[in-house]
Specification:
single chain, 143 residues, 29% strand, alpha/beta, Trna Endonuclease, Chain: A, domain 1
Amino acid sequence: MKLLVDRKDKLPEEQLVNAVVRFLSNNGYRIRTEVPNMGQSADVVATRGRWITFIEVKRKDWRRALVQCRAHEQVADFVCVAIGTKSVSPLLQQEIKFAGYGLIHCVGQTECEWILTPTRNAGVWAPQRRKLSEILRTIDHVN
C-alpha cells in the first residue's frame, strides 16, 4: 500500500498517530488514543509499568504541541511530541530539550525513531494523576 503524503512530505495526521501507536506498541507500551485530560485530550497516552507518557502528535505547528504538552505535565511522568516531517528543525529540538520533553520523528508509516528521550517529570500533581488513572482504567488499549 502506498503512503499518501502532501507536498511537504508530511504524513496525514491520522496516519501519523497510527505510526506512533505501532512504534510505541512495538517497544512494549500499552496505548490509548484521544485520552481526556483537564478539558482537552492527549493524542496518545502510552503506559509501561507504572509510568505514563503523553504524546502530542503534529504534522505542523509544533509550537501548539508545546502548549498542549505543558497541560500534561500535571499528570504525566513523561511528555513527548511526535512530528511527521521529512526533517526535524533544530529550533524544535532545542525547545523540546529545554522543556525536558521527548521527540519522536516519523517519516513513514513504520519509520519512527526517538530523536530525544524525555526526562522524568517531577511535577506530577497526585490528585489529578489519580483522576487520570481512573479514566485510563475505563479506556481499552489500542494494542
